[in-house]
């Protein structure tokens, strides 16, 4: 490809609205341009990278038996209403009407559509298991689209769906897809972790997110420093310690405080450690009032608590609601004297005594609280966010935190969609059974951004060879020099004949401009035709290491193959 006519509008300055490296470099390298907030045009350079990623995805999914298809982007509302997600997805669903007033949505995901197809197409267990996938543009009306391709309203995604007659069959495909994801993300050059996650609006269980490690990541990963354990912070579990405190329980008493706005402030006044202080939270669990108890130095994990309490909804009451329900200020809420509401306490409080807690009197706190003696605890459950330094749930090492970009996720959906939509098959005995389903997604455009977040330097992008837009960048340093121009054309023709994917910079630009653009674009190998062209010598530079060597044109093919092999290992 001749760069003189190749659409790659590079920029020298960092765009003011680009906050993260991948967004900055994709704009500067001429890969994308914004059309509207969260909506981007992919220019030829980006399209070539995306095609490389898609090719790897296809290879690995087809290797485990997945079949590619294309589903419509325009979804009739009736399908989403069958599962209840027309309302549940809320404002993220981009809705529209046709000329006849019929409601549609632009597809953010395709569970309803594929389930409707399979319920009509597959009637017998003999056709199962089935695994299908597509790579397609998706649409979500993000409240705050930002970070370029990391959070947009329109994005490229690979979504796959599997259908099964048994749990064993679902497990087998789930594991095969999990392994395929590991191979995909390894091949594209990412450092990643598979973490335990929450399925959210997708439904289902046994969910793992694949996270590319990057400081810009919006998710926090809790991982063991000594094992493979990793979980999204919202799903990381705490170790249950059931050993009762050896300290003798002291009589319940009280201490004066000066109008403390919170139990944490009261503890500070009394010089009482937060690790021996109980905070009380009022919540609605499926619309039923209840109290949650945590250490004052811990933070409630609402998503994990929802699962632990086997609830469909959990809402923490605000200051106004607390005053209305309990006739006290939020900072004075207590569990002492409660006779009607269920009380759930965090694992960290189990078997312990000698706590500070709010009392029913505004200017006093209760001290030496023994939870088992002074309260009626419904049960001890895992309610809190884990902290760095906590013991790992698998018993190996301690918990550390890292930031991550979600690039893929695998779900076991079970029968949620097939039950909701009446999708069933006949088993060996002629009985109708709902399909057991799996769902598997990869953010293709997001993966490209994640690769750049991990592979760049001060001068620009440093593409891994497997996904680079071109393998080699050929530069003519002085296009007006006849010897350089002639040798460049000779080399370009030879490289194309040998099957190399080459971007040939034949522009009438200064050498400095070409070098800067080459570093910015980040193609793995660069060959420069310069002052020694009359001797047949070229400069070969490896983008990732900075290694630079002079190579005679007669030795170029062999040297390039050697460097390509090094980069591919």
TrEMBL record:
The keyword Protein biosynthesis applies. Residues 48-464 form the Aminoacyl-transfer RNA synthetases class-II family profile domain. One of its GO terms (cellular component) is cytosol. It is found in: Cytoplasm. It holds the Pfam family HGTP_anticodon. It catalyses: tRNA(Pro) + L-proline + ATP = L-prolyl-tRNA(Pro) + AMP + diphosphate. InterPro entries: aa-tRNA-synt_IIb, aa-tRNA-synth_II, aa-tRNA-synth_II/BPL/LPL, Anticodon-bd, Anticodon-bd_dom_sf, Pro-tRNA-ligase_IIa, Pro-tRNA-synth_IIa_bac-type, Pro-tRNA-Synthase_IIa_type1. GO terms for molecular function: aminoacyl-tRNA deacylase activity; ATP binding; catalytic activity, acting on a protein; proline-tRNA ligase activity; transferase activity. Keywords: Aminoacyl-tRNA synthetase, ATP-binding, Cytoplasm, Ligase, Nucleotide-binding, Protein biosynthesis. Signal peptide: none annotated. SUPFAM superfamilies: Class II aaRS ABD-related (SSF52954), Class II aaRS and biotin synthetases (SSF55681), YbaK/ProRS associated domain (SSF55826). Its EC number is 6.1.1.15. It is an enzyme of class 6 (ligase). The keyword Nucleotide-binding applies. GO terms for biological process: prolyl-tRNA aminoacylation. Belongs to the class-II aminoacyl-tRNA synthetase family. ProS type 1 subfamily. Consists of three domains: the N-terminal catalytic domain, the editing domain and the C-terminal anticodon-binding domain. Homodimer. Catalyzes the attachment of proline to tRNA(Pro) in a two-step reaction: proline is first activated by ATP to form Pro-AMP and then transferred to the acceptor end of tRNA(Pro). As ProRS can inadvertently accommodate and process non-cognate amino acids such as alanine and cysteine, to avoid such errors it has two additional distinct editing activities against alanine. One activity is designated as 'pretransfer' editing and involves the tRNA(Pro)-independent hydrolysis of activated Ala-AMP. HAMAP family: Pro_tRNA_synth_type1. This is Proline--tRNA ligase. It comes from Alkalicoccobacillus porphyridii.
């Amino acid at each position: 490809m001749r760069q003189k006519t190749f659409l790659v509008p590079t920029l020298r300055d960092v765009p003011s609205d680009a906050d993260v490296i991948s967004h900055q470099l994709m704009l500067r390298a001429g890969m994308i341009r914004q059309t509207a907030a969260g909506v981007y045009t992919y220019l030829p350079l980006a399209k070539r990278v995306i095609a490389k990623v898609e090719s790897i995805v296809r290879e690995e999914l087809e290797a485990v038996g997945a079949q590619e298809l294309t589903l419509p982007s325009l979804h009739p509302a009736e399908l989403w209403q069958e599962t209840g997600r027309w309302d549940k997805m809320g404002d993220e669903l981009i809705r529209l009407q046709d000329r006849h007033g019929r409601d549609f949505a632009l597809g953010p995901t395709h569970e309803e559509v594929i389930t409707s197809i399979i319920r009509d197409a597959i009637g017998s267990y003999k056709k199962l298991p089935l695994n299908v996938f597509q790579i397609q543009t998706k649409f979500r009306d993000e409240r705050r689209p930002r970070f370029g391709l990391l959070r947009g309203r329109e994005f490229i995604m690979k979504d796959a769906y599997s259908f099964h007659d048994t749990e064993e069959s679902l497990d087998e495909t789930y594991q095969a897809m999990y392994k395929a994801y590991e191979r995909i993300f390894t091949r594209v050059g990412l450092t990643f972790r598979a973490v335990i996650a929450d399925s959210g609006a997708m439904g289902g269980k046994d969910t793992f997110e694949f996270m590319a490690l990057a400081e810009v990541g919006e998710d926090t990963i809790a991982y063991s420093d000594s094992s493979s354990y990793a979980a999204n912070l919202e799903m990381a579990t705490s170790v249950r310690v059931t050993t009762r405190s050896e300290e003798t329980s002291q009589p319940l008493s009280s201490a004066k405080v000066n109008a403390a706005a919170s139990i944490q402030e009261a503890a500070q006044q009394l010089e009482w450690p937060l690790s021996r202080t109980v905070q009380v939270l009022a919540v609605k669990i499926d619309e039923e009032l209840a109290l949650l108890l945590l250490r004052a130095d811990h933070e409630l994990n609402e998503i994990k608590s929802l699962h632990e309490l086997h609830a469909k909804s959990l809402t923490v009451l605000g200051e106004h609601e607390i005053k209305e329900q309990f006739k006290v200020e939020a900072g004075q809420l207590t569990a002492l004297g409660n006779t009607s509401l269920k009380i759930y306490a965090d694992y960290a409080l189990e078997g312990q005594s000698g706590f500070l807690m709010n009392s029913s009197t505004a200017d006093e706190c209760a001290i030496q609280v023994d939870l088992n003696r002074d309260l009626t605890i419904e049960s001890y459950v895992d309610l809190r966010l884990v902290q760095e330094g906590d013991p790992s749930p698998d018993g190996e090492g301690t918990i550390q935190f890292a930031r991550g970009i979600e690039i893929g996720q695998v779900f076991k959906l079970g029968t949620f969609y097939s039950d909701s939509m009446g999708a069933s098959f006949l088993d060996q005995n002629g009985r109708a059974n709902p399909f057991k389903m799996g769902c598997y997604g990869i953010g293709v455009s997001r993966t490209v951004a994640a690769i750049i977040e991990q592979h760049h330097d001060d001068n620009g992008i440093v593409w891994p060879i497997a996904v680079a837009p071109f393998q080699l960048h050929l530069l003519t340093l002085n296009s007006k020099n006849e010897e350089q121009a002639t040798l460049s054309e000779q080399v370009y023709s030879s490289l194309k004949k040998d099957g190399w994917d080459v971007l040939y910079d034949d522009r009438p630009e200064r050498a400095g401009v070409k070098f800067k653009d080459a570093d910015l674009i980040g193609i793995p190998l660069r060959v420069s035709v310069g002052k020694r062209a009359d001797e047949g010598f070229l400069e070969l530079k490896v983008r990732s290491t900075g290694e630079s060597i002079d190579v005679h044109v007669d030795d170029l093919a062999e040297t390039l193959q050697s460097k390509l092999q090094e980069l591919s290992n």
